[in-house]
Here is the input.
Amino acid sequence: MKSLAAILLATAAPTIATAQVPSPPPPQAALKYVSPDEWLCRPGRSDACSANQDATIVRADGSRSIERFDRDENPKFDCFYVYPTVSADPAPNSDMTAGPEEIAVAGSQAARFTKHCRVFAPLYRQVTLLALREAMRGKPMPDVRARAYADVKAAWDEYLAYDNHGRGVVLIGHSQGAGLLKDLMAREIEGKPVQRQIISLIIPGTNVAVPVGKDVGGDLKSTPLCRSNKQSGCVVSYVSFRAETPPPEFSRFGSVDQPGMTAACVDPAALDGQPKPTDAYLGASGAGMGSAPQPAWSRDGAPVTTRFVKVPGLISTRCATSGRFSYLAVTTNANPDDKRTDTIVGEILRDGHPLAAWGLHLIDLPIEMGDLVELTEDQAKAWLAKNPPSPVG
Here is the structure.
């Protein structure tokens, strides 16, 4: 997949590095989302979220099997997904064409959630990689994020009006998408009747401020951190770094510039606080453009024929702190008797060197994907127990 800064900072994208960024066009009205072409994913059709999710399971003894993916034919809840910064369009805001980058990232991040829920994913005029690069260089980019937010809000309003019908919904996003959903939750959902319909908010790859030592407050005033798979109306947020390489002082992830606040870290694989191996679904060929290619998954060098790989017991996570940073510490459980690789790629590279400030941003979702998918199902059951469907007729 292509993700935030994979193109932004990768040397593989010289044309973006040298391109001139045009000024943002005049403000435009938000889209209405009445056309199917304005949606990247909708239930009941073949689209980006219909991508094959079969995975090769590679075990410690070197044995393999294929895990076939099955979608629920009658999902009881919905998922509303907003994708990360992927657009390489040569403008501050992307167009509304579903290019290969949007299709690929939805196939990697959102499609697996169709195991249990109906997935709605709007296209939106996101802040492009080009504009983000210029903003990081100090060039003002007025209105570009406001336009992206207005589109996401318009899509959410359309979904609520014509598709939701009182169903519970999980909000899922990564990076730019996570930030937009955090704002949507704070501005349009908290304190309003629709908050009752939120099963959970899953937004890795962005900083969510919470008061030190507390589970609620800060960026989200009434949405607590998730501490149980039977809890609903809560938020999962984290940024991932290798346990042996915590965030450097100049990192943009894992800290918040607010007195008395810290960045939220919720480990979906260990809501009880006990570290354990994650149920990761990793890209068979690696973490995407901007990262190193993934070495062979086992010592025999045998190829993998599926798009995704599972490595049971190989990766563990825990929430950790280092100075002012709070983050998800990722450990590869190396063992000489394990016939699998000890190398899991996920860093963004520049000139062949990892960009330490970004950690494992490219695999924030894959590293916990299976845990997140099953967490949504458990939380939906808890939500439905409190909010049974109204009788028909």
